[in-house]
Write a structure and sequence with these properties.
Blueprint: E1 8-12, H1 17-28, E2 32-37, H2 40-50, E3 56-58, H3 64-78, E4 81-86, H4 101-122, E5 126-135, H5 148-172, E6 174-181, H6 197-209, H7 219-230, E7 241-244
This protein binds NADP nicotinamide-adenine-dinucleotide phosphate (NAP).
Length: 251
């Protein structure tokens, strides 16, 4: 299929999970892709998976100079950008009482502040028309236990997505949409600080049992939606937050 033929795309957090799967789908659909990551081992693995044609750039989302530098590198590489999938993010599930200023700041720095300032830096690079897709979460649409601060970061992302359409659609031809996945089986769940494998399995089973479909989502099921939002097939889709969660939010 060639649904993204000729598109020049940036995927942040393209070294793992949903971002890595989406990068592979984008390439298969004819796009030229640049991805970012932060962890050296993850970057190396992604380079092997994606091959020579996909530059993998290290750009720490917590470092705003690195985000601005990334926009500049994208401009040097592509000239203009047709698609940005702002996907890099971290989760942190912990009881509300156990959050600290550091854990709160880490979530908001990576999930919100970096998205805010990277988007600002990308505005002059984005083509007219272009499509930006933000990765939010269905946790922002519910009231799930232990997701408090994380869910709040994703609610902020949804809010930015809506207001940026007002700021930038008419003036710059940039349309913004979001996806809100429910639990998707990615390495993210091995980064929650749960060391005991038995407890990790119990957490994943508990998550799956709370999803009406009875299972977690697969990264390819999320990538498919991103391909749609990146493609011209969605040209009339503006300001939407697509919930992809096996029915978890509506039941
Ligand atoms: N999995 C789910 O259930 C789920 C549900 C809803 C929403 N989401 C959202 O989907 C997005 C991707 O999550 P995932 O499940 O695919 O997780 P993942 O496998 O852990 O991937 C996270 C990606 O973000 C990158 N990243 C993390 N911290 C970064 C930083 N400081 N600077 C730059 N890049 C950074 C990682 O880079 P390295 O690999 O180089 O460290 C990696 O590429 C996140 O925004 C997450 O909140 C996930």
């Amino acid at each position: 299929m060639n649904r993204l033929a000729g598109k020049r795309a940036l995927i942040t957090g393209g070294t793992s999970g949903i971002g890595l799967e989406t990068a592979q789908r984008f390439v298969a659909e004819g796009a030229q892709v640049v991805v970012t990551g932060v962890t050296p081992a993850s970057i190396e693995k992604a380079r092997q998976t994606l091959g020579d044609k996909v530059p993998v750039i290290q750009a720490d989302a917590r470092d705003l100079d690195a985000q601005r530098g990334l926009a500049e590198r994208v401009r040097e590489h592509f000239g203009e950008l047709d698609v940005a999938f702002l996907n890099a993010g971290v989760s942190d599930w912990r009881p509300f009482e156990e959050h600290t200023e550091d854990s709160y700041d880490r979530l908001f720095d990576i999930n919100v502040k970096s998205v805010f300032f990277l988007t600002q830096a990308l505005v002059p690079v984005l083509a007219n028309p272009s499509s930006v897709i933000l990765n939010a979460s269905n946790s922002a649409h519910g009231g799930y236990g232990h997701s408090n601060a994380y869910a709040a970061t994703k609610a902020a992302v949804g809010s930015l997505m809506r207001s940026w359409n007002t700021d930038l659609l008419t003036s710059h031809g940039i349309r913004f949409n979001a996806i809100s996945p429910g639990p998707v089986d990615t390495p993210l769940y091995r980064k929650l600080g749960i060391e005991d494998p038995a407890q990790q399995t119990a957490v994943l089973e508990a998550i799956s049992s709370g999803i009406p479909l009875g299972r977690m989502g697969k990264p390819e099921e999320i990538a498919e939606a991103v391909v749609y939002l990146a493609s011209d097939a969605s040209a009339f889709t503006v300001g939407q937050d697509l919930i992809l969660d096996g029915g978890q939010t509506i039941f």
